[in-house]
Specification:
By secondary structure, the chain is α/β, with parallel strands linked by helices. Helices cover 49% and strands 9% of the residues. The chain has eleven helices and five strands; from the N terminus they run αααβαβαβαβαβαααα.
């Protein structure tokens, strides 16, 4: 076996440029099918990380993600979707990327190799022992991420990670490692593919499970979602109709009055 991290090993396929479109799509899809199975093996590790996040949040703490490149973008994506989905404040789940927001759209030279910047970025948010920091790096070797979690751990902050290699420096640096080993990429080394998919799925699991346990869902409904467009207002109206067994006009009236599905459900009995 090649003495390389699995994310850097040669693809299971070769001569990609000679494949038909159908062959490319079929083979990529076949590789992608392995991702949920790799995550399944890590469910106990993810559970431990979620439980510590919930405990810290119940004590007033926050969840931080740090990463570089694709990993950083995925962390920022997950964090940015928590306020509209669960109605939480923008400072409850925070995603940071090496190189700052400019790096969301552009490669920032040497940003991931900076050993000092991660802690500087975290200090801007006054990160403390109440919080949890999750480092995200497919390779598990990104200096920006490793230095950030190491310093956080020294400061008594709970640390976890999401990586796609076994026994990486990043996993060794944290208390709650999640190591989703998805194997070599279809395009050798292109960790925006299977590794990125694995990270996205795990991030979904972490934030969704944590915020459900924090009471931000009722039944199976996003009752705290921000009503920021017509689609979400209509979704809110339907929720109210289903939950309270009222007609559409009454549901609209209630939602316009209380501006929140949860507040409608909480106050309906007092109105009737």
């Amino acid at each position: 076996m090649e003495n390389k991290p699995t994310t850097e090993r040669s693809s299971n396929y070769d001569h990609l440029e000679k494949m038909s479109t159908q062959e490319l799509l079929t083979n990529i899809n076949n590789e992608d099918k392995s991702v949920p199975l790799a995550i399944e093996k890590q469910l106990p590790a993810i559970e431990k990380l979620v439980d510590v996040i919930v405990t810290r949040m119940q004590e007033g703490g926050r969840l931080f993600y740090i990463g570089a490149g694709t990993s950083g973008r995925l962390g920022v994506l997950d964090a940015s979707e928590c306020p509209p989905t669960f109605g939480v404040s923008e400072d409850w789940v925070i995603g940071l990327i090496a190189g700052g927001d400019h790096a969301l759209r552009h490669a920032v030279e040497n940003a991931e190799d900076d050993l000092e910047q991660a802690w500087k970025d975290l200090e801007k948010f006054h990160i403390s022992k109440k919080d949890v920091l999750v480092g995200i790096a497919a390779s598990g070797t990104t200096p920006y991420v490793i230095s950030g979690v190491k310093r956080a751990r020294e400061e008594g902050i709970a640390t976890g990670c999401i990586t796609c290699n076994d026994s990486s420096p990043l996993a060794a640096a944290v208390e709650f490692p999640v190591e989703v080993v998805v194997g070599p990429e279809f395009v050798t080394g292109s960790t925006r593919m299977k590794a990125g998919t694995a990270q996205k799925l795990v991030l979904n699991m972490i934030s969704t499970s944590s915020l459900i346990k924090m009471g931000r869902v009722k039944g199976n409904k996003m009752v705290d979602m921000q009503l920021s467009n017509k689609k979400l207002v209509n979704r809110g109206v339907k929720m109210i109709m289903e939950e309270l067994k009222v007609e559409e006009e009454e549901a609209k009236r209630l939602l316009e009055k209380y501006k929140s599905v949860r507040k409608v459900l909480r106050n309906f009995d007092s109105e009737n």
